[in-house]
Amino acid sequence: MRPARYEWIPGLGNAQIRRTSRRLVRITSPSTAVELLTLAREAARERRRVIFFCSCGLPRWCHRSVVATLLLRAASAYGIRLRIEEWPGGEPRTRPIHVELASSQSALRALLPLTGTRGPARLAALPYGTLVQVDDQFDDLVPVGPARYGSKKWYLPMLLNYSDGTSVRGTPRAVSDWRRRYGYGARDA
To answer: What is the pTM of this model?
Structure first.
């Protein structure tokens, strides 16, 4: 029988989660980051990765960014090299990926619905900020996140400037700025 692959570490939870302002973060037991670091080292010996997660949409305001900082500090204190990346990780691609839209009008919204069954699987691991050429309907490239499934169809979420709801321009610099602003860049110890 396989060992459990899920580990709950209550000490790394946000003690402020029940407060009215969800942006307050106080890790219950910061020293517990060493426990997660130990699990990551064990997984690395088995050539596996560790994923720590919660339901927050943006890493910048999520307690997992604070946990990441605690992990990096612990790794540095023990002389351990560590890289932390938001899923799916990696740098965005700058070459266009051609996708088909389910309908041309939906391209004007923040979601790009996809047709067919071949494309979505390969698009599910796109790093946030990948530039996509959509059926030659746009003059510019559109920055997107990984494919998602919802309402019985696959779609690509377009990157939005969450402060005002506008779409992020499809340039490598604009995407890089967005990734840095919202916490999607890799962090190393």
So the answer is: 0.77
